[in-house]
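Internal ticket - ligand job 99, zinc ion:
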Amino acid sequence: MPIQPLVTFDYQRTGDTQPEPYLEEDEIENLFEQTRADLGSAIARKLAGVVCADHQQAAAVRVNLLYDRQTEQMDVSYSVEPCCQLFLQRVVQLLHRVG
Ligand SMILES: [Zn+2]
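stdout (structure tokens):
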């Protein structure tokens, strides 16, 4: 069993609810859950067994999901909490291939 990355998720909603929203609040919740499941497994696949050669640390990735009720768009951003700069670059490179 390869070492698994540590992946954590943050959810946020912003903006005022539109008169006739495309997604109701509970559907936004579902979208978060779905995205979390999809991204979580995609990231785990990409980063499984990826360990810093110098510090023997697994990758730690924080995923921020931001739903804007105004534009009705979900914005995804990543932040990597690395043990060192070299490992950060490696993890970011691998993350860019997450489809
Ligand atoms: Zn390191």
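Auto-summary: The chain has a mean pLDDT of 93. The pocket of zinc ion is lined by residues 52, 54-55, 57, 83-84, 87 (CB under 6 Å).
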